Amino acid sequence: ETALAGEEVSELRMLAAAAGLGRVRGDGVVIELRDAPPVVDPVTGEEQEENPGRVLDRDLQILVNALWQAGAEAIAINGQRLSSTSAIRAAGSAILVDFKPVTSPYRVAAIGPDDLNRRFERSPTWDSFQQLADKYKMSIEIHRQDNLTLPAATDPRLRYARPPADSSRAEPSGAPTPSRSAASPVPSASG
Question: Is pTM beyond 0.90 here?
Fold first, then answer.
């Protein structure tokens, strides 16, 4: 920032916010998903291990994708800001957002246009979640919220491929000739 002029600093900050690497503030929605209460065996009175109303990683993925489609500009799950390299995954019974565990209730905050909540509520995703709530007793609530603040995402620490230190190493037979200079970094397939 010290090397850039005022307008360029502002543009850099806007780009960082859009990429998820800068803190943002604005109006939007908060959607709260809660696991259904555990199922109790009527004979023993004990909670069953299997809970069909438990929120899954794919539920959060579907919800987030529907918010992006409805016009969300920034999203966080339980305070974990999403970026273009974010992952929402299951690890056993835990849900991880960028390798950090999140638990129920899942608070999905999204900043976007004034009608973001109406756009989302008209989506097939909202209807699906309403059906899940009715059938499995999980809970979903949506609230419009002014002046939300979402933190910056964790820096993804992108890695780049580098040419071998010893350029005399033999290439496999039939290997294509590199079209780039050996000194230019190339993004790796692993992110």
Answer: no
Mean pLDDT of 73-79: 95
Other Cβ atoms within 10 Å of 47 Cβ, number:
12
Check residue 24 and give its pLDDT: 87
Contacts of 27 (CB under 8 A, 6+ apart): 111, 114, 144, 145, 146, 147, 148
What is the distance between the alpha carbons of residues 79 and 34, in angstroms, rounded to a whole number? 16
Determine contact, residues 126/69, Cβ cutoff 8 Å. Answer: no
Mean pLDDT of 48-65: 92
Q: For residues 57 and 90, is the Cβ–Cβ distance under 8 A?
A: yes
Angle between helix 57-69 and 124-136 (nearest 10): 150
Task: List, for residues 92-127, the tens digit of each pLDDT value.
Answer: 889 999 999 999 999 999 999 999 999 999 999 999
Residue 53, judged by CB atoms within 10 A of its CB (0-12, 13-18, 19+), counts as: middle
In three-state form (DSSP H/G/I as H, E/B as E, the rest C), the secondary structure along 94-139 is EEEECCEEECCCEEEEEECCCCHHHHHHCCHHHHHHHHHHHHHCCE
Tokens representing 40 are: 């109790």
Nearest alpha-carbon partner for 94 in 74, 76, 75, 78: 78
Token pair 């590199």 in the structure block, residue: 178
